[in-house]
Amino acid sequence: MKAALAVAAANGDRARYRLDIVSATTPEEASAAVDKLVHDGAHVILGTYGSTLSAAASARAEELKVVYWETGAVADPITAQRHYVFRTVATGSALGRMAVTFTHDALIPEMKLSAPRAVVVRVNDIYGRSVGGGEEALAKAMGIQVVDVIEYNPRAFDAEVIASRLAADRADFLWDVSYIDDGVAIWQALLRNHVSFKAAIGTSSAFCMAEFSQRVGAGSVGVYAADKPDGEINPAALSPAGRALLAKAQAEFARTKTSLDIPAVAGFVGGWTLFHDVLRHVSGPLTSESVRAAALEVDVPVGDSINGGGVKFGADGSLDAGQNTRAAAVIGQWKAVGVMKVLYPAAYATG
Questions:
Q1: Phi, psi angles (nearest 5°) of residue 51
Q2: Count of alpha carbons within 13 Å of 286, Cβ hemisphere only?
C-alpha cells in the first residue's frame, strides 16, 4: 500500500492534510503509484512495509524530488545515496547483526561452544541480501564461521533440497531470511527430515509473524526471530514520555479493535514522527525541501518512541543519510504456539 499527504487547507497554525491511498502489489505498480500521487499534488509519500515495493517507489520519488517516508521496509539500499528518502525502522543489515550479536553474546556462551558454525539461508532479493549480508559480515568479525550461504528464489525453490543441504552442513546455528510461505515450507521440510540446530534465528518477514507459528504449530516452539518490537513492550525500555505515548496508542487501537502488532507499531512510530515531529515544525509552505529540513532536525531520545527507540536521521552525505540511527530491534522466541516473548536486549525482555 501507498499513502500520500497533500495540503488541502491551512488555518492559522493548524494545517489540515488530505490522505490518499493507492494500492500497489508489484514494483511496477509501486513506481506508477508514486507518479499518480505526485501528479495529484502529494508532498510526502508514505509506504510500504515491503522492501521490493519500497525500493521501486523510493527510487521513483527520489527522481521526482518528493519526500518518501518509509515506515516498515528494511532493505538497506532504500536509503542509500538518497536525498529525499527517510526511514524510521531498522535496516535489514541491523536485523541481521542483531541475530548474530544475540548468538555471540547469549547463545554461544550458554552452550560453551569454542568453534561455532553457522549457515545463512536467504531469499535472493534486496531484503535477503541486506539481512544476510549483515549476518555474514558481523559473523566474520565475531569469529563465527559461516560454513554455507544458501540463496534461493522465493517463487521457485525446492524446500527438500534446501533441507538436505542444511543437513550436510552440520552447522550449530541457522540464520534464515525468508518470506512467510517459503519460510514455513523450509521449516516444515527441516522438521520432516529431522534436521536440527542448536538454535535457529529467523527475521522479520516470516519467523516473527503469528502466521508462522500457527502454520508450523508445535514445530515453531523454541525458534527465535529478529525484528522490530510490538506493543507488548517491557516498560523498562521506555522513558516516561514513551510510556505515556504508548498508553495513548493502546487506547486508540483498543477503541478501533485492532492489534498493536509489529507492523502496527512500526507504522505508528513512522506516522507519529511525520505528523508530530516533522510537519508541525515545517517553516513556510509545505514543500519537499521544507519537509526535508524539518526531518533532519528531528531529535527524539531513545525510549521516547513507543517501540523503545528514538528518532535521529543520518545527516546529508553520511553513510546512513535518511536512516533513523535510533531505530529499535529485538530478539524474540516462540514459547508456545502463537506466544512469543522478547528475550534480547535485556531492557526489552518480557520472557
A1: -65, -40
A2: 23
Q: CA quadruple 205, 54, 48, 312: dihedral positive or negative?
A: positive
The last residue of a domain, from among 296, 327, 346: 296
CA dist., res. 86 & res. 68, Å (int): 6
Report helix angle 27-39 to 51-64, nearest 10: 40
Q: Does any domain span residue 345?
A: no
- Kindly state whether residues 122 and 83 are assigned to the same domain: no
Alpha-helical regions (H) of the chain: 27-39, 51-64, 92-102, 108-111, 126-142, 159-169, 180-192, 210-216, 240-255, 262-272, 288-296
Would you call 97 helix, strand, or coil by DSSP?
A: helix
C-alpha cell at 309: 527507540
Comparing C-alpha atoms, which of 315, 115, 122 is closest to residue 205?
Answer: 122
Residue whose C-alpha cell reads 504449530 in the numeric block: 217
250 Cβ contact list (under 8 Å, min separation 6):
231, 260
Q: What's the structural domain count of the chain?
A: 2
Helical spans, DSSP H, in 10-83: 27-39, 51-64
Q: Tens of pLDDT along 117-162?
A: 999 999 999 999 999 999 999 999 999 999 999 999 999 999 999 9
Rounded distance between C-alpha atoms, residue 274 and residue 300, angstroms: 12
The grid coordinates listed for 148 are: 554455507
Q: Is the pLDDT of residue 13 over 50?
A: no
Beta bridge partners of 324: 313
Edge-to-edge strands, sheet with 2-11: 14-22, 2-11, 44-47, 67-70, 85-87
Together in a domain, 73 and 126: no
Question: What burial letters (b/e) apply to 304-329, b meaning 16+ CB within 10 Å?
Answer: bbbbbbbbbbbeeeeebbbbbebbbb
Give me the CATH number covering residue 137.
3.40.50.2300
Domain for residue 326, yes or no? no
Nearest of 88, 80, 12, 41 to residue 271 by alpha carbon: 88
Q: What's the domain range around 104?
A: 93-227
Residue 48: the pLDDT is: 85
**pLDDT over 90 (residue 17):** no
